[in-house]
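Per reviewer request, we include the raw input and output of the structure prediction for the construct analysed in the revised manuscript.
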Amino acid sequence: MRPKVVITGMGVVSALGIGQRQNCNALKEAIPGIRNPRFLPTDLHDFPVGEVLLGNEELRQSLQLPADMPFSRTELLGVTALKEALEQSKLLNHKGLCFISGTTVGGMDVTEQYFPNPVPNLIRDVHDCGACTNNIADCFDCFDSTATVSTACSSALNALIMGKLMIESGERDIVVAGGAEALTRFHFNGFKSLMILDKQVCRPFDKHRAGLNLGEGAAYLVLEREESALSRGAEILGVLSGAGNACDAHHQTATSADGQGAFLAMSQALEDAGLSPEDIDYVNAHGTGTPNNDETESAALKRVFAVKVPPVSSTKCYTGHTTSASGSIEVVFCLLALQEAFLPVQFNFENVDEQCVVPVSKKLSLPSLKHLMCNAFGFGGNDSSVILSRYE
């Protein structure tokens, strides 16, 4: 019998604030964090973003990191979230942990400042995704191995799935996993070139949706074998009960019309958790606000849940699309909803699109929440889904 994978710590930073409490309060009060760019050096001020409202120096000082070492913004956000997760799980002084982080831009926010000139060697060392993971881990004296997942917007969720598999296989008792991503000019301009940025706060599933808002942030979760958590006397926040990943390889950026990859990922997650579609109380959708994503994700949801689609919403209208970090940030949001018995509201939904699901648009308190699904879909059709369950 495979071990139960429980969650004993989580940390998050997003446009909604630093830490679980600030993020939870903003979600419960339906206060979005999307604004005009403040720290991102860009001329595209017509396009709002989900920016963390602390500058790099403020983040560095709050973490008491040395001033003479280069840190990318991705790393600073990652260290902030990781510290909260380790503190909650009482693992700051633990040795021999495994760290898995998802990112795509890595330290690009630092290296792109030198373009088109050569990048100094010391600065080059913070650029690539693997170096970013290692630099985050090196700020703590508790990791003996690291791994990096880079599958675009499903990166952080795939990091969690990898951690779950490592625990179930007996390779590890504890894995810390998630993702971190900072805004950069490169991927901001890249998404603009795809013509999928909205000049307003994004409106997932709304008939008049016009695209996404980019965001940034980080979130990490401590995954642990149930027996290990109980032996340590750790507080168990929830269960990572199911996971699925599929790749439909339909197109480099677009999803297939019937949402095949999303359908497979959600179906696999249900099977992995040993649950039926009717057991799911809420779905935190990938819900980017682009015409293609929302229509095809809706098609996949209708295929999976056939008779009755459960309450659905996208929290990207609060944080923007945090790309590689989105999966772990939204898993934290699901756990907060599970703990405090509320569903994140789609506060700016107004117009029903017959091709899309109708998201939660009014405050709901549901004390019976038990199983929540979280989706993250990446470019190339790399689609992932996980199920979070109340610990019994």
